[in-house]
Design a protein that fits this description.
Chains A, B, C, D: Keywords: DNA-binding, Transcription, Transcription regulation. The structure is a homotetramer of 234-residue chains. Helices cover 59% and strands 0% of the residues of chain A. Chain A has 234 residues and is mainly alpha-helical. In chain A, α6 (92-115) packs across α10 (195-207). Chain B binds a DNA duplex (21 and 21 nucleotides) through α4.
Chain lengths: 234, 234, 234, 234
DNA sequence: CATGAATGAGTATTCATTCAT
DNA sequence: CATGAATGAATACTCATTCAT
């Protein structure tokens, strides 16, 4: 008399609801092929489940997609070595490098999934409504800014360091390293970003590109105020 | 002797070809709603023209899209104050700010248009075949890197400045400032980025966030080598 | 547990699948109007069914056409008295007549269906892939030639009889009797070929048209070698 | 003040009307690629003439096609060595062979053109209304029958020869030799029919395939009346 | 509550025909 | 009378969604 269970779940341990099974299946398809061109039928077939079952558990395709996207992001986050959350520990330099590596890996895994949804505001809105909406760049950005703020508080960064700007630069660089690949190649099988590129980004953010203090281009005093004198005081 | 003219062109000034009219219409639709979900019929209806007329002027939808995209990019570029191409002129600080402002505005206007095409490589390929394929991020990146390299050559930047990294950071930041908006709203409704955000980015790239030379957090010597000593020599 | 059933099937006896219903409908349309100009929508409308339903049961239009064509050919074959397959039995004369009658009736019913496909080789290829690909003329030709060869082996035909030629003549005559009708009317309105036409063909193939042996037109010897002396030995 | 002339005609000698030019162009296209898939635009482009000009000279596409088809048939006829029209002259044998060769060549050139029209009754009706509608098999059939009738009258054929049947068999064989090629291969570049195939057909029609007079299969008298005794008298 | 066939609006593209110039 | 761009109905096919079983 209890409600029928989908065959595919009986084959399983049986401790997963069909709803969860569908989300997991959609998540896997999103991870493998991105969101674009993903049809309801493909999900149902991959889940070894009837087409219409989706509508017993979700309002529509968009709700399922939002949930699957969410699950995808969370599982990507889980699979990556977390960037250092505690300021003051370890090498500042290495910590920053870890953030960059993390951001690149995160975007590499997540951006393709979002690419197909940019014109589906309802999916994104639903996604935003879910707990832990860390993805999309915003979450990482805030976390990094917070970390940098803490480091600044601890005196490991310049007291006038533009931490929000630095966070934007770093997370943005992660996008920039990933985007060109999305425009040209297959979603999977991307080669890793070379270490020296990440090193250069780290050092450049730390030190900037202005002339070092005391240098002189003309021999007759600085033609322009030294960068360190410009800091925040413009 | 001349063939019939489309009704919509007679109502107009009348000196525009239907081909131009169609490109302009598609361009407007792209600017307003992005490329994704843009149908041939929507373009024809918006242009107040029969469905099939498109194929009298373009090989297929993709050709029209590529041309409209191109027109969109060019008109955006035309509407923006160009960044300084000549190194050594003007304020380095102001030049960088101009680049950032330009990049942000460019991406703000252009990214939504490209977003829908991430999975239609053929349109992108056709677009790349058109003259002035500067957009897409790549062009700006190279141009900025080249500018920075020239400034470094002129001695207006640190001799060991990571110009490629800086370019990546800056262009990436432009993406980062725009991407979150893509996930929430319609392209047409995007507001400009505040000036102080751009200023902060500029200063941070120029000066970095490391502790200034000579500063000391513990009074017992630097716990870690000073940033300027790390430069390129690790 | 079972999914919905098409409304049109409920009105029917109800024991037919929609797939069968679609094939039968297409078959009827082919029988009535031939294959050419037959659209997917026409089939769906005639079957009182939604447009897209076709693609739940067939890969594409061509598969349905090939199957309907196949069904048409089989039902025509079933409706016709089969020609004698065993040589040596019955009247040679009557056997031949039966072959001709069969061929004419077959072509009369089948040629219009194939006519529209002369330039759609893919449908023909799929059709050829189905079991019992006897139609199209080739099958009947081979079968008839084989039958005649057997009769010759049994001594019921002249030892030098041109059985392949005879088969070509007979099957060709079947075409010839049908083709002119294709050019003028609708397939459904074709009337059967009169019996005496078939008789004449039979006798002419059996006996030829040359002068009988021993006859003489001029009284001064044959102006040309007698036909029977020409047999195969020229 | 005289009506404008199409540019393409001025380049010509100028003694051809545009109507004739269009018919000739369509004829050439039909000869090269058949009737199927032949578009009005293709004809106009090939004729180097505006699309709409067709409708100044013909009621519609179908009228032009019927006329072009007619012209095609006539020009094919003109290009072929005519079969012997005069009975009593030459070798009967050779004459028949010439008819077969003619029929095969005629059908090879003409059938592809008709293939695409089998479902356009209006084109065919218009074609039938034109003078000299010899094609389609009917014309050749009648001519051959008439020739055979004359030979019979002259005593060069059996007095009870089934000339209509023989004509049907021969013309039909011509179809049969051509049709299989149409179903499988490219319209052009067909290899010629081997001479011995034509010889066999000729001899078989002349002599039939029945047992020769006086032969006996069982030694106990003919199991069935001899073919020559069956002639016309059943 | 699962099933999966049925639905039908929607997609890009073609092409005979019209008609202002 | 020629022009050739404009027209729009038609084509095969897709896919999110529904619903009787």
């Amino acid at each position: 008399m209890s409600p029928r269970k989908a065959a595919v779940l009986q084959a399983d341990g049986g401790d997963r609801t069909l709803r969860e099974h569908l989300i997991a299946t959609a998540e896997r398809l999103i991870a493998e092929h991105g969101t674009a061109g993903l049809t309801v039928r493909a999900i149902a077939r991959e889940a070894r489940v009837a087409d219409g079952v989706l509508y017993n558990h979700f309002a529509d395709k968009e709700e399922l997609l939002a949930l699957a996207l969410h699950a995808h992001v969370r599982s990507v986050e889980r699979s990556l070595a977390e960037p250092p959350r505690r300021a003051g520990e370890g090498d500042l330099d290495a910590n920053l490098r870890a953030y960059i590596a993390y951001g690149v890996a995160l975007h590499l895994a997540i951006l393709p999934a979002f690419a197909g949804l940019l014109h589906q505001p309802t999916v994104l809105a639903r996604f935003a409504g879910l707990p832990n909406p860390m993805a999309g760049g915003r979450g990482l950005l805030d976390e990094l800014a917070e970390y940098l703020r803490a480091e600044r508080r601890l005196g490991r960064l310049a007291p006038d360091a533009g931490v929000e700007a630095a966070a934007t630069l770093i997370v943005g660089a992660c996008h920039q390293l990933v985007l060109p690949r999305l425009l040209t190649g297959a979603p999977a099988s991307f080669e890793p970003i070379p270490d020296d590129v990440i090193d250069d980004l780290t050092q450049t953010v730390l030190n900037g590109i202005a002339l070092p203090p005391g240098s002189d281009t003309s021999g007759a005093g600085p033609a322009q105020p030294h960068a360190s004198e410009l800091r925040r005081d413009q």
